[in-house]
Amino acid sequence: MNELLSASNLSFAYSQTPVLKDVSLKLFAGKVLALIGPNGSGKSTLIKLLCGHLHGSGQIIIKDRPLRSWRKRMLARTVAYLPQSPTYIDSDLVSDVLRLGRACYWSAFGLESEQDLAAVARVSALLELDDLLDRRMDALSGGQRQRVFVGRCLVQEPSILFLDEPNTYLDLKHQVDLLKLLQKLAHEHGLAVLLASHDLNLAGAFADELLLLSDGRVAARGDAQTVLRSEIIGPAYGLEMAELNESNYRFLFPKLQEQQEANQ
């Protein structure tokens, strides 16, 4: 497998409060890795460290080069990042937001090339945004805006894609459609995808590997059959969990109070 990123012994603290403690992971071309874990477990902080928005202790290597040695312009051609709450200007058109994803390729005079325009057109068609290109951002639904932000990342044509809760504002159909797209981009086009998710079952259905964070540490890693177990997930979330196995998938859900009482 083609290793695109390696992170070793990452630790980080806000002021004197530790958030991540000795976290290590690898990202490979063609694979989707899903970060799961409760609020405050360090998922967003880890992603920010991996893309250089925060700096802690440990080592991050991207394509055989330390992260800190990358120039921002070249890093943006390799790594794309979608935060939990992307910012935008209400009056911006969808087409303008997508085009901004090509800024790292523009000439010194800010001129766009035919390749830039073609990349925007490809992504717009891929995410079914063609009918929205002339719409203002403030005229879109939350789900439509989220698809535009994903598109802006894809327009960068990165090798590595970081997404922090990309399913925010998306209904179930569009959540599944997005995860299918990310899986296809990884498996067929060699993209390395890391996404943070609160939906354990969707993450387990689409990711090649799950990494469970609990209290800033790696509590478990592996495929869905390995990680999505009540004895692993329950302590991390502070819940009693029930399991359902169906057609090679493992599903987890919290036990209802009456279920717990019936088992006592």
Please provide a written account of the structure.
The chain contains 10 helices and 12 strands. The protein is α/β, with parallel strands linked by helices. It folds into 2 domains: 3-78 and 158-263, Rossmann fold (3-Layer(aba) Sandwich), CATH 3.40.50; 92-156, no CATH class. A 6-stranded mixed beta sheet has the order 6-7-8-3-9-10, sandwiched between helices. The protein has a 4-stranded antiparallel beta sheet with strand order 2-1-4-5, covered by helices on one side. Strands 11-12 form a two-stranded antiparallel sheet. It is globular. It starts with a strand and ends with a helix. The relative contact order is 0.16. The model has no long low-confidence stretch (mean pLDDT 92).
